[in-house]
Design goal:
Immunoglobulin-like, about 425 residues, 9-stranded antiparallel β-sheet, Jelly Rolls
C-alpha cells in the first residue's frame, strides 16, 4: 500500500480587528478660531481591553498625547489653515482617527494700564486692563493670575479690580479668553511694599476745622464764620461700618461756602505720635495711599467733596488735592499747586445714593518733589491718572504731613451731612 506523508493541517485563526471610533466635539471642521485652540474628544473601541491612549497631530506632527479614552486640552497654533487629526489607539492594536481642518486667523491682545511692569505699589493693588480680539463673537472673559493662581475673573473685555496682596515681589498675569477659543496674556512683575498704615483716622483726636467763604476761600476759624457753619461728632456707632464713624455737617447762608477738616498725622503737632523731630521721616517718604469710606445724606446738596494728602518740608509744599466735583463737571479734579487751581482729570465721579462710597487715592512724591497723581478708585472702579504737577514754595518753616477732608456747599448752601469711616493712610 502506497504510503502518503502525514500532513498536519494547522488552522490559523486570526481575530477580526477591533472596531474603533473617535468623536471630536471641538473644534468643528472648517472652524475659524483663535490661536489657542480647544480640543475635546472621546474614543471608543470593540477591543475588550479598551482604549489605551489618544493624541492630536497638527500638520502631521504629534503635539499632544494622553492615556485613556478622553481628551480635553488646548494647543496654541499658528495662524492660517491647520490640518489636525485626533487619533485613538486601543490595547488590541487597533486605532482610528478623525480629522479637523481649522482656520486660525484670530488676533487678541491685552492692554494693562495698571500696575506697570516693575512698579512698586501698595495695598490695595489696582488692576486695570482691557482686551481686544478679532473674534466675531467677542471677548468672553478676562482675569488676573497672581503667582500662577487665578485671583479674579470677570465676564467681558474690561478688568478693573483692587486686590490685597502680600508684601514682596509678585508675578501678575492678566489673561483674556474670547468666544472663538482664543486667548492672550500680559504680565507684570510688581513689588508690594508693606508700608505703614495709620488706621481709624476719622476717630483720631486733633482735627482742625475751618470755614471757607467765596470768592477767595480764605480760612476762618470761628463758627458761623459769616455765613457758613459746621460741626463734627466722632465715635458714632449707630450709623457706621466699623462702629466708630464720624459725622460731618455743613450749613449756613452764604452760597458755595466750604468747610475744611485737617489732621496733622506726621511732623509738627502729629496726632499719631510721629513728630519727626529729627526731620528724617518725611524726607524718606514717597508713596501715600488715602483710603476711606464715606456716606452722603443728600446728593442734591453736595456740590463737591475733597480728599487730600499734604506734605511740607524744607520750604517746599506738596498738596495732592483731589476733588469729586459732583454737581459741577461730574468728574474728579486734581489740584495744581503752582497756579492754585483745580484741573479736571477727565475721570468721572459718580457717587452712590443711600450707600457707603469707597475712595482710594494713590499718590507719589517724585525724586525732584514733583507730585504724581497715580490713580483714583471709587467704588471698585480705578481711574489711572499718571498726571504730574510741580510743588510750590512754602513761606513758613512748617514741617509735616496732613490728611484733609472737605465739604462744599451748593448754590443755596443747603445743609447736609456726611460720614467718614475706616479711614486709613498708608505711607512708605
Amino acid at each position: 500500500m502506497k504510503k502518503f506523508p502525514l500532513v498536519v493541517l494547522t488552522l490559523a485563526i486570526t481575530a477580526a480587528p477591533a472596531f474603533a471610533t473617535v468623536t471630536v466635539t471641538t473644534p468643528t471642521n472648517g472652524e475659524t478660531t483663535g490661536t489657542s485652540v480647544q480640543f475635546a474628544a472621546t474614543g471608543s473601541t470593540t477591543c475588550s481591553k479598551g482604549v489605551s491612549s489618544m493624541g492630536i497631530y497638527v500638520n502631521n506632527a504629534l503635539k499632544y498625547q494622553v492615556s485613556g479614552a478622553k481628551l480635553a486640552t488646548s494647543l496654541t497654533l499658528g495662524t492660517g489653515w491647520n490640518n489636525t487629526v485626533v487619533q485613538e489607539w486601543d490595547y488590541c492594536g487597533g486605532s482610528s482617527s478623525t480629522a479637523r481642518s481649522i482656520d486660525v486667523t484670530q488676533s487678541a491682545g491685552v492692554s494693562l494700564s495698571a500696575p506697570a511692569n516693575g512698579a512698586t505699589v501698595s495695598n490695595p493693588v489696582s488692576f486695570v486692563a482691557s482686551a481686544t480680539t478679532s473674534c466675531a463673537k467677542g471677548v468672553a472673559s478676562i482675569g488676573v493670575y497672581i503667582d500662577n493662581g487665578l485671583a479674579f475673573k470677570t465676564s467681558g473685555s474690561q478688568l478693573n479690580k483692587q486686590l490685597t496682596l502680600g508684601g514682596g515681589g509678585h508675578q501678575a498675569v492678566v489673561e483674556e479668553w474670547d468666544n472663538c477659543g482664543g486667548a492672550a496674556t500680559k504680565s507684570a512683575q510688581i513689588t508690594v511694599a508693606a508700608g505703614k498704615t495709620l488706621s481709624a483716622l476719622q476717630a483720631s483726636g486733633g482735627w482742625n476745622q475751618w470755614g471757607e467763604l467765596p470768592p477767595n476761600y480764605n480760612i476762618c476759624t470761628s463758627d458761623p464764620c459769616g455765613g457758613v457753619n459746621w460741626s463734627m461728632y466722632q465715635h458714632d456707632s449707630s450709623f457706621s461700618l466699623s462702629g466708630n464713624a464720624t459725622q460731618f455737617n455743613i450749613g449756613g447762608s452764604t452760597p458755595y461756602s466750604d468747610v475744611l477738616w485737617s489732621n496733622p498725622v506726621i511732623g509738627q503737632g502729629s496726632t499719631q505720635g510721629l513728630s519727626d523731630t529729627s526731620h528724617t521721616l518725611l524726607t524718606s517718604l514717597h508713596h501715600f495711599t488715602y483710603d476711606a469710606y464715606f456716606y452722603v445724606s443728600n446728593l442734591s446738596a453736595t456740590q463737591s467733596l475733597e480728599f487730600d494728602v499734604n506734605m511740607y518740608f524744607n520750604s517746599v509744599g506738596m498738596e495732592w488735592g483731589t476733588q469729586c466735583d459732583h454737581l459741577g463737571s461730574g468728574q474728579w479734579d486734581i489740584w495744581n499747586n503752582v497756579d492754585a487751581k483745580w484741573v479736571p482729570s477727565g475721570s468721572p465721579c459718580k457717587l452712590e445714593a443711600n450707600a457707603w462710597n469707597h475712595v482710594t487715592l494713590q499718590v507719589e512724591r517724585e525724586s525732584n518733589n514733583d507730585l504724581l497723581y497715580q490713580s483714583i478708585t471709587l467704588n471698585g472702579v480705578t481711574y489711572t491718572l499718571n498726571k504730574t504737577v510741580a510743588p510750590f514754595q512754602v513761606p513758613s518753616g512748617w514741617w509735616g504731613a496732613t490728611v484733609n477732608y472737605q465739604m462744599d456747599g451748593n448754590f443755596k448752601q443747603v445743609a447736609y451731612t456726611t460720614y467718614l469711616d475706616k479711614f486709613t493712610l498708608t505711607y512708605y
